[in-house]
Task: inverse folding
């Protein structure tokens, strides 16, 4: 009896509650290192004002990055992030035209546009089988068409209410950070803890296998673009509140960084598992990198170069087969296959 | 078939020399012996059949003989000289192999497939088209040379492959089950070609499962079993029964659970009646409670297709009843549990954990209030995995880190957790170690005992003998024998399969010589130049419309302004075309063009000596080459995706531009600008050069080996490798070429903006992709035209110009661009989808 119980226990597979993705470790260490090195070499980069100034923009990038992540998870890429954010920005500044009471309806309108844009993207990609680059490139142009239809291309000041909500701070923490954390929690819970979310992840990891199991592959692929647009919409509305007089092209500067944070967080551009927490940390990392380089007094251009290097290092961490490189470099004799 | 012995050709006495001698060949695959100590002599002037069951080692032996696989032991002697074979060496020695899966490039035409695969010497001394026609006639392939191979049927692709093998006049010709997809007429023609080749002294190796074909064609036969040589004989000296005895009799270490004991009252729980679908035809079966049904036959005769139809993964006609209830394909998809043969591509989500994979089909059952209950999920999953004795580091281990046997058990755990109504297992023990096999058999038996019907396909007849209560033997898509009870033996299965003479029902109609080729108009619509014609029409109509609104539209000034504006985008888009043809993408072209102008702004100034200006231009070229080299190397050697690699380059180049210049500065030499903007009449010289470059590139793409290789790589990398394209070199040179075109674009840009400005150029990345896509180049690679790209660039520029002429706001610039790209790509993909669907049906 006793041995039976013992045996059973050793066979039973276990799990630990704390599970850490390797990508998380890498980006977290890099971010901590950045803050520490910043503290030593350029103390002003971690000054209160620098951090307070950086966090809202990191929050916006984090939210846009989460949206991009959902699309990349399904093996796509969303170039309409620029148009989506820009449109949300202009709708939430132009429609109310300074009148805070009209903000609510403006935001509803922005959400409606986001839903429509996401749905069209999704249908083009998953049902009409267009390459996601083409579909979202075309959608991006259409969204900019809408931007000009709404704004005529001229910036307008944001409403006081939005500036207070999105640009303000509570107990010393910028409000935008709360929005980013909320978005993170929602995305994480939905993808990791619900039936639909788990199916979504499985489809991203292997659509063919998911279909063999009987999952609705195309529906989830379509919806990934819708979720993404909703997040871009949130990012755009926040951005409209953070920036005093946002331009019509506010989203352009977020296109490449949104892809970069997803890649830095370890999500493969070929699709697969998404890493929401790492994506948010990567956004913080990229923005703090900017602060650091600024504080060093080096030309801002260097910061772009450092971003490129960070991205290259990040991608190579995941894509290069390091164990084979090590073998080739350090092991002289090829390993012999042992006949079983 | 016809009488067996009369048809053999008597070899001429002179042609009996051994040309290829495989001596004591051994080959291990991950420690398992696929071949051990096999010796075969291939003689010129005779057909040598290699016979054996699925997995007997036939194909491995031929991979060794053709240089595709390297033996772990033994030697290969060719013409009395010991050689080490690679595909290149084998080709040089005149060893040609026709693989079971044809190495064809789907996006290229029939003619181009021949041109890229065959050495140039084949086409010497004649017109390519005529020589190619003769090759196709020789194997009875009646298709148009300009048909895209994608539109061919499987049988036609096979014939194309056979034509390629004959074309190089091989000394040794290896045919790996060539008749499987062919209709009778094609088989007869192939056999007569083989006989003729043999009469000319060619040594033919013929791999087959079919005794009838051995009788009809071969002089000598070698039988393999379990990777070992079982016997060799003249065909005339051996009877069918003797051959069969050599083929069967595998040893199997696994133990099987006891079979179901049938009782009179067992209810029928699973019925298939007249099921037909893609690759299988009129399959029927009846199973009572507790039975395991096996599907046997030579691999690739419709067994997998039948199972996929049952799983609801492909459409079918006929009826399927489970537990007395008729099920549609859609219901089967959700209610039947399918265990695919290929665990990597279809069975498991390799990057997810053991827990996630096991739970994925049963998530509904783990739901708590509205979130998933971790407790429920962990409990049920761990219980099931434990009952299957899955060995893994933990529930959170990536499933890819498990052994094949444990991976398969995870698939079974998923199956059990989903509580299916029907279990369909395709090759359940492939790549599974012996110990785990026995457990998989036990689990399948337990499932069957619990009242769930189980159907198993296996290429291993011995396994089916041990496991199944009833076995369907399939050949060419139909059931040729249903074995029950004591008849479920390896001998009976193999005997039924190898004696089969059914011909492929799918191929009969399509490979007949009377097949009408696609018409000229249809071929054009499906061809690469249809988008170009469409663009010309749009450009003319749009131009005509603007002219009616504003007669200054065709003024010399406007014409030269527009055409000059086309040049920068045009050259960059030509470059982008190269990357997209390769199946990649280059996001860095925009920032590269801007960066190159910034570089030029330090050298190409007023009052700088001509030498400095030349150095500046040279530097642009050098930087361009370097960028292309880095992009290509990141993609090929560091395994970056094209997007990741060129995105990194994008950001880096943008940074470098700002490092060199903080804002606009460094005016470009006025004389140089004047040269760049020279016009002949209203037409800028630069535009003429652009058109010339596009036409030249087009010529190379269509008519030169360079272009074929480029498109072959983008069309199907694996097939391209097999026909001898050097993939790494092609891709890296492709990205360098992209950058070089961008250098030309940057020179034009330099003339237009006249100053080094780090913020310029970036937008060309997206507009170049737009131009290329409008021109009809596919982002999937392999098909497209430079001419189309040029027209796409013209149209985009015209559209931007039009909005100002028509007095429209910026809004319309964006809307038109967006609609144009979406409408065009939907239309192109629609044409393409129709074509592929059509070819599947044919």
Result:
């Amino acid at each position: 009896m006793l041995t039976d119980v013992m045996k059973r226990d050793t066979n039973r597979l276990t799990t630990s509650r704390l599970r850490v993705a390797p990508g998380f470790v890498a980006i977290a260490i890099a971010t901590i290192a950045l803050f520490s090195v910043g503290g030593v070499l350029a103390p002003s980069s971690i000054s209160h004002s620098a951090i307070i100034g950086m966090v809202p923009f990191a929050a916006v990038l984090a939210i846009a990055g989460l949206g991009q992540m959902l699309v990349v998870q399904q093996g796509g890429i969303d170039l309409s992030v620029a148009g989506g954010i820009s449109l949300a920005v202009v709708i939430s500044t132009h429609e109310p035209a300074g009148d805070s009471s009209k903000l609510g309806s403006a935001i509803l309108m922005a959400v409606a546009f986001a839903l429509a844009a996401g749905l069209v993207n999704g249908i083009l990609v998953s049902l009409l089988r267009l390459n996601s680059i083409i579909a979202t490139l075309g959608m991006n142009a259409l969204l900019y068409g809408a931007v000009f239809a709404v704004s005529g291309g001229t910036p307008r000041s944001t409403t006081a209410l939005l500036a207070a909500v999105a640009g303000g701070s509570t107990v010393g923490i910028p409000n935008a950070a709360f929005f980013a954390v909320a978005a993170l929690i929602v995305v994480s819970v939905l993808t990791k803890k619900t039936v639909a979310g788990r199916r979504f992840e499985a489809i991203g990891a292997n659509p063919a296998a998911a279909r063999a199991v009987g999952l609705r592959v195309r529906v989830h692929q379509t919806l990934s673009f819708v979720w993404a647009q909703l997040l871009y919409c949130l990012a755009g509305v926040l951005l409209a509140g953070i920036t005093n007089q946002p331009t019509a092209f506010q989203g352009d500067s977020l296109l490449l960084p949104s892809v970069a944070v997803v890649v830095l967080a370890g999500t493969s551009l070929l699709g697969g598992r998404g890493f929401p927490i790492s994506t948010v940390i990567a956004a913080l990392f990229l923005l703090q990198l900017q602060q650091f380089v600024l504080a060093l007094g080096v030309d801002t251009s260097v910061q772009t170069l450092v971003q490129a290097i960070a991205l290259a290092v990040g991608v190579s961490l995941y894509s290069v087969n390091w164990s084979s490189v090590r073998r080739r470099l350090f092991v002289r004799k090829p390993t012999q296959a042992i006949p079983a | 078939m016809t009488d067996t012995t009369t048809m053999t050709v008597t070899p001429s006495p002179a042609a009996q020399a051994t040309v290829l001698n495989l001596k004591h060949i051994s080959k291990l695959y991950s420690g398992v012996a696929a071949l051990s100590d096999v010796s075969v002599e291939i003689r010129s002037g005779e057909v040598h059949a290699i016979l054996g069951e699925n997995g007997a080692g036939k194909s491995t032996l031929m991979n060794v003989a053709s240089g595709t696989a390297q033996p772990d032991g033994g030697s290969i002697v060719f013409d009395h000289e010991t050689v080490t074979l690679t595909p290149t060496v084998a080709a040089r020695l005149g060893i040609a192999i026709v693989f079971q899966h044809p190495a064809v490039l789907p996006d290229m035409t029939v003619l181009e497939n021949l041109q890229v695969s065959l050495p140039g010497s084949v086409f010497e001394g004649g017109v390519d088209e005529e020589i190619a026609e003769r090759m196709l006639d020789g194997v009875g392939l009646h298709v148009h040379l300009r048909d895209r191979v994608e539109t061919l049927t499987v049988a036609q692709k096979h014939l194309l492959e056979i034509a390629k093998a004959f074309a190089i006049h091989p000394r040794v010709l290896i045919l790996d089950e060539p008749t499987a997809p062919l209709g009778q007429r094609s088989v007869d023609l192939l056999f007569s070609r083989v006989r003729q080749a043999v009469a000319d002294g060619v040594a033919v190796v013929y791999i087959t499962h079919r005794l009838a074909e051995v009788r009809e064609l071969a002089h000598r036969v070698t039988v393999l079993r379990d990777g070992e040589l079982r016997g060799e004989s003249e065909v005339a000296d051996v009877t069918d029964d003797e051959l069969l005895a050599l083929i069967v009799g595998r040893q199997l270490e696994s133990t099987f659970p006891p079979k179901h004991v049938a009782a009179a009252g067992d209810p029928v729980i699973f019925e298939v009646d007249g099921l037909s679908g893609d690759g299988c035809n009129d399959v029927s079966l009846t199973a009572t409670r507790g039975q395991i049904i096996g599907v046997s036959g030579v691999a690739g005769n419709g067994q997998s297709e039948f199972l996929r139809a049952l799983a609801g993964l492909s459409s079918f006609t006929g009826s399927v009843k489970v537990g007395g209830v008729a099920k549609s394909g859609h219901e089967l998809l959700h209610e039947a549990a399918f265990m695919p043969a290929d665990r990597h591509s279809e069975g498991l989500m390799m990057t997810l954990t053991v827990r996630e994979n096991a739970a994925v089909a049963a998530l509904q059952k783990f739901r708590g209030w509205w979130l998933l209950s971790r407790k429920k999920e962990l409990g049920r999953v761990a219980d099931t995995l434990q009952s299957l004795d899955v060995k893994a580091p933990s529930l959170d281990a990536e499933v890819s880190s498990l052994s094949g046997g444990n991976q398969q058990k995870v698939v079974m755990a998923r199956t059990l957790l989903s509580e299916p109504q029907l279990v369909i297992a395709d090759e359940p023990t492939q790549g599974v170690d012996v110990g785990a096999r026995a457990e998989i058999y036990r689990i399948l038996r337990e499932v069957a005992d619990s009242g769930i019907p189980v159907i198993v396909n296996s290429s291993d007849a011995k396994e089916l003998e041990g496991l199944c209560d009833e076995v369907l033997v399939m050949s060419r898509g139909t059931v040729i024998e249903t074995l029950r009870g004591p008849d479920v033996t390896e001998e009976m299965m193999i005997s039924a399969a190898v004696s089969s003479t059914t011909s492929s029902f799918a191929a009969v109609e399509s490979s007949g010589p009377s097949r009408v080729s696609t018409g000229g108009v249809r071929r054009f619509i499906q061809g690469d130049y249809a988008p170009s014609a469409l663009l010309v029409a749009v450009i003319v109509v749009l131009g005509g419309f603007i002219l009616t609104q504003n007669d200054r539209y065709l003024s010399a000034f406007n014409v030269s302004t527009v055409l000059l504006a086309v040049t920068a985008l045009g050259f960059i888009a030509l470059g982008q075309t190269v990357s997209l043809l390769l199946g990649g993408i280059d996001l860095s072209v925009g920032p590269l063009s801007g960066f190159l102008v910034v570089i030029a702004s330090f050298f190409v100034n007023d009052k700088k000596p001509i030498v400095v200006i030349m150095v500046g231009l040279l530097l642009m070229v050098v930087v361009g080459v370097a960028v292309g080299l880095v992009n290509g190397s990141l993609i090929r050697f560091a395994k970056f995706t094209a997007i990741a690699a060129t995105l990194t380059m994008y950001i880096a180049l943008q940074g470098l531009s700002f490092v060199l210049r903080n804002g606009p500065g460094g005016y470009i030499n006025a004389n140089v600008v004047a040269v760049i903007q020279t016009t002949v009449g209203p037409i800028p010289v630069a535009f003429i050069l652009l058109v010339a470059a596009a036409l030249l590139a087009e010529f190379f793409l269509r008519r030169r080996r360079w272009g074929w290789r480029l498109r072959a790589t983008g069309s199907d990398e694996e097939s391209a490798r097999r026909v001898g394209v050097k993939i790494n070199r092609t891709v890296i040179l492709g990205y360098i070429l992209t950058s070089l075109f961008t250098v030309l674009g940057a020179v034009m840009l330099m003339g237009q903006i006249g100053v080094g400005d780090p913020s310029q150029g970036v937008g060309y990345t997206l507009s170049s992709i737009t131009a290329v896509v409008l021109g009809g180049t596919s982002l999937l690679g392999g098909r497209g035209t430079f001419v189309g790209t040029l027209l796409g660039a013209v149209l985009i520029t015209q559209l931007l110009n039009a909005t100002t002429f028509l007095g429209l706001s910026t809004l319309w610039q964006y809307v038109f661009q967006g609609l144009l790209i979406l409408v065009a790509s939907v239309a192109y993909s629609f044409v393409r989808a129709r074509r592929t669907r059509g070819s599947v049906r044919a």
